[in-house]
Amino acid sequence: MTAAIHADLRAAASPRKPSGLTVRDRRFRREGAERHWLDGDPVATAWFTALSASFPRGEAMFIDAVKAHRDGVPPVLAEEIRDFIRQEVNHSREHLAFNRAAVEAGYALAAIDARVAALVAMTQSLPPLVQLTITCALEHFTAIFAHQFLAHPDHFGTADEETVALWQWHAVEEIEHKAVAFDTWVHATRSLPPFRRWLMRAVVMGDVTCRFLRNRWIDALELLAQDGITGWRARWRLAAYLWGRPGILRRTFPAWATWFRPGFHPWQVDDRALIQSAR
Question: Per its record, what are the GO molecular function terms (predicted)?
Fold first, then answer.
């Protein structure tokens, strides 16, 4: 086990990764969006809307965490950090518009936004390196979700084309920059012993996973309650959606678990072909 842990530093120091990011400054029409925009399904709509409600504040937190550690990084990574920031700013802007459309369609997101704001404030009270590690863990979530959204378009069914385009555009750029925060973390922790590096990201991912899934579950149930779906029926339908069909959590579990492998790096899974094939 000790030898395997020592592989963590060697593998992460020389990852297989692409060079260069593309900033696609897209704007998406959101006027007149239907309340249950995802195939008329309130459960699917609640899950994706709960995700979107967390994005603007979360992505601003990611930007701050990476910026705090960009001094002295290699020139190629410095350029990627600049493009990562530009991509995340665009994502925040478009999901703010998406969230406003959800409010216009009748959902109340204020309580969800308040919970996200409180969690971000708590995170930003932690040491900067812990904030960066949390960012890396959450970027792993967004990357494996993005892979699923592009590899399995059935997640979106026959939803409005413009809305699907928004989520696919976001997914493309999440895959493209999936290693930027991680490579920044590798640089920031380069002087730490390999076992401590591995332990840090393993412990943080455990905590992040619990908080992320619990909060998105609570948020989705709150949105379902606004549609009059409550109690065990709401919990059962949401669990069936996440773990049954289409089963985003079931499908992403193996990829999520790779995080704990010594020597993990995001580009050990090269899914750039999904970027090329995205609609």
Answer: hydrolase activity
Helix 194-226, helix 231-239: angle, nearest 10: 130
DSSP letters along 75-88, please?
HHHHHHHHHHHHHH
Q: What distance lies between CA 91 and its chain's CA centroid?
A: 11
- Domain residue spans of the chain: 37-277
Residue 241 · residue 137 · CB < 8 Å: no
- Cβ neighbors of 137 (< 8 A, separation 6 or more) are 201, 204, 205, 208, 209, 259
Calpha distance 177→199 (Å, rounded): 24
Contact 251, 148 (CB under 8 A): yes
Closest CA to 189 of 132, 149, 148, 109: 132
**DSSP per residue over 146-204, as a string?**
HHHHHH-GGGGTT--HHHHHHHHHHHHHHHHTTTHHHHHHHHHTTTS-HHHHHHHHHHH
Q: Does the pLDDT value for residue 143 go beyond 70? A: yes
pLDDT of residue 12: 53
Is residue 141 within 8 A of residue 256, CB to CB? The reply is yes
Q: What does the alpha-carbon distance between residue 170 and residue 37 come to, in Å, rounded to a whole number?
A: 17
46, 47, 53, 58 alpha-carbon torsion, rounded to 10°: 170
CATH second-level architecture of 37-277? Orthogonal Bundle (1.10)
pLDDT score, position 4: 41
Reference 135, options 169, 195, 173, 178; nearest CA is 178
Q: Which of 28, 169, 151, 157 is nearest to 100 (CA)?
A: 28
Q: How confident is the model at residue 122 (pLDDT cuts 50, 70, 90)?
A: very high
Residue 60, Cβ density class (10 Å: 0-12 exposed, 13-18 middle, ≥19 buried) = middle
The yes-or-no verdict on residue 57 having pLDDT over 70 is yes
